[in-house]
Design goal:
This protein is an all-alpha fold. About 60% of the residues lie in helices and about 0% in strands. The N and C termini lie far apart (about 105 Å).
Length: about 325
């Protein structure tokens, strides 16, 4: 029992120092009244618990000393349990991340895993060699309905050398890969990468024949999607317009973050992307469009202007857009 008793005193000393440290830091700078009150309560409770453990360890009974040891060891055991749990979870996350990077998370068969690995490495020569071998279907979807073309396009959005990955995309197309497949759960490839991808990648898709006005099932044209993330938004909208995107194509009626039948100009204004608003206006966007629900550009702009006391306090980019809007809306004599 001597070892148990000594262990208890060591642990009691450690916890006592922690309680003392907390007590001395209650009045530290930046700790508000609520924080001080909460910490004071915890210190009081911890002091009572330590006093009880001291009494248990002093009593000349084996049972009380063992109870004290169990209580003292419990926080350490819980801490170790949490630490080990976090470690194994971190390892799992790293394995999943690695599997996503090399494609093995999406494809279970060895053939497509090898192809995906070649794409991830940007090894065009190896990719051509692997595709020369018999493959059941280059467009067969894997996990999350991802195809090899989808994986390559997603890899291009994260690669330090996207041009090399786009060469892999060319090779996949040459071997029959398509942007859309029969699987109803599959999202067309260009829609999967248009937000995080670059304007250069979007241009590649458009040059390969992707319709800039395509509307996926229950969705909206891609011109709305490229405005969602602040990744070359202006450049991507301009690229779409240069390739024939309709500046007045309305949004779908089942979008989560877009009001039904909103116009691209209204959506850009809702996102306060005034440079895109100017571009859309120059390319023929209708500033007088109104949705079936009665929403229009004027309502969006009125809502934006509410917090401002006057034009002098509004952003310059917004005032420039308003000036062009007024000029476009004024009837010519």
């Amino acid at each position: 029992m001597k070892i148990v008793t000594i262990s208890n005193w060591v642990l009691i000393g450690i916890y006592g120092l922690l309680v003392l440290y907390t007590l001395l830091g209650i009045n530290r700078s930046g700790n508000d009244a609520a924080g001080r009150g909460m910490e004071s309560g915890l210190v009081f409770f911890a002091a009572l618990l330590l006093a009880g453990l001291i009494v248990l360890n002093i009593l000349p009974y084996r049972a009380t000393k063992i109870i004290a040891l169990v209580v003292l060891a419990l926080p350490a055991l819980v801490g170790l349990y949490i630490a080990f749990g976090n470690y194994f979870e971190l390892q799992k996350q790293r394995r999943n991340a690695a599997a996503s990077e090399d494609g093995s998370a999406y494809f279970q068969d060895a053939g497509r895993q090898q192809i995906a690995a070649a794409i991830a490495a940007g090894d065009v020569t190896q990719l051509k060699t692997l595709l020369a071998k018999p493959l059941p279907s280059i467009n067969e979807p894997g996990f999350q309905s991802k195809t090899l073309l989808d994986f390559a396009a997603l890899t291009a959005t994260k690669s330090d050398n996207p041009q090399l990955i786009m060469q892999c995309l060319d090779v996949l197309l040459e071997h029959g890969a398509t942007f859309q497949i029969a699987d109803s759960a599959h999202i067309p490839t260009q829609f999967q990468v248009c937000e995080p991808g670059s304007a250069e990648l979007l241009t590649w898709f458009l040059n390969k024949g992707v319709d800039p006005n395509m509307v996926p099932r229950d969705g909206s044209p891609i011109i709305f999607k490229v405005m969602d993330l602040d990744v070359e938004r202006l450049e991507k909208v301009q690229t779409l317009l240069d390739h024939g995107a309709n500046p007045n194509a309305p949004a779908g009626s089942h979008e989560y973050a877009i009001r039904p039948f909103t116009s691209p100009l209204m959506y850009a204004a809702q996102r306060q992307s005034w440079a895109i608003c100017e571009l859309l206006l120059e390319r023929g966007a209708d500033p007088n469009y109104r949705t079936p629900g009665g929403d229009d550009l004027k309502k969006v702009l009125d809502e934006f202007e509410k917090p401002y006391s006057g034009p002098e306090t509004m952003p310059v980019v917004y005032l420039n857009f308003k000036k062009k809007l007024t000029t476009k809306s004024t009837p010519k004599p």
